[in-house]
Amino acid sequence: MIKSWMVIGGVAFLVALAANFITPSDRKWFKRLQRPRWLTFEAAIPVIWTVIFICGAWSAYIVWEKNPGTNTTWVIMGLYLLLEIVTIAYTPVMFRLRSLQVGTIVGGAGLIISIILTLVVLSISSWAALLLVPYLLWSPIGTYTTWQMVHLNPQDA
Questions:
Q1: What Å distances lie between residue 108 and 3, 8, 81, 84, CA to CA?
Q2: What region does 41 belong to: left with phi over 0, alpha with psi -120 to 50, or beta?
Q3: Measured in whole angstroms, how far is the alpha carbon of residue 39 from the centre of its chain?
Q4: How far is 86 from 93, CA to CA, in rounded Å?
Q5: What's the confidence (pLDDT) of residue 119?
Q6: Most exposed: 16, 34, 53, 77, by fewest CB within 10 Å?
Q7: How far apart are CA 70 and CA 73, in angstroms?
Q8: What is the rounded CA–CA span in Å between residue 125 and residue 75?
């Protein structure tokens, strides 16, 4: 029998694969952009997001197990999925459009969705809500960084 954590993890993994739809020219565009001087931890960003996605999937698992298969739980799973899609869309959409402003908007949208999701999940499980805190802490940093890059690279705003 397939366990709920396997389905949740599998869906999260499949959605995360969508981030790989970027071309070498897209990567080249992004690599040439100026970054804020304080951005000394860029190499750690993939690890940070991996931890955040694991925490998000674990949070979704906890919520699912509280009331599996109910309409409310399915709606909440839809919010988790929406949050992951918006988060994953940040890179390919920003790269493809070559627009840091679009990246800032997508990052801000992810923060808003994560706040809503956390508030909804809090009434179901404090542990599930706590697992969303890394997203709530990191997302504003990433969005702010992209916004700062808009000012450093006005030609790519």
A1: 33, 24, 17, 13
A2: alpha
A3: 19
A4: 10
A5: 98
A6: 34
A7: 5
A8: 16
Cα four-point dihedral sign 145, 150, 156, 157: positive
For residue 120, pLDDT over 90 is answered with yes
For 74, the token pair is 């399915």
pLDDT tens-place string over residues 51-92: 999 999 999 999 999 999 999 999 999 999 999 999 999 999
Which are the contacts of 147, defined by CB distance < 8 A and separation ≥ 6?
100, 104
Q: What kind and span of H or E run contains 23?
A: none
Model confidence pLDDT, tens digit, residues 123-144: 999 999 999 999 999 999 999 9
- pTM (2 d.p.): 0.91
The answer to whether the CB of 26 falls within 8 A of the CB of 95 is yes
